[in-house]
Amino acid sequence: MKLCVRSMALASAVLWGAMFLFVALLNQIAGDYGAHLLEFGASLYPGYHGPAGYGSVLVVTMYAVVDGAIAGALLAWLYNWFRKDPAAE
User: Fold this and answer.
1) Fewest 10 Å CB contacts: which of 3, 33, 71, 86?
2) How many whole angstroms separate alpha carbon 6 and alpha carbon 11?
């Protein structure tokens, strides 16, 4: 069975983006919640400088959606590439 690259990219984009959105929003509400994860995001994504307001929440979410889509597509492509199809032999 092969993985659908498009579906994996979309699923990964939604999960990774939603995770950063959820953590960043909770950080805005509850202070230090997820601060280390958001600092990690600041080190990964240019233009995002950490939890500074709701604009930053949108910036990190957009970066995470794109990053998740790329990672999901690469994972599905690599899985399909390494997988051997017994019917093709």
Assistant:
1) 86
2) 9
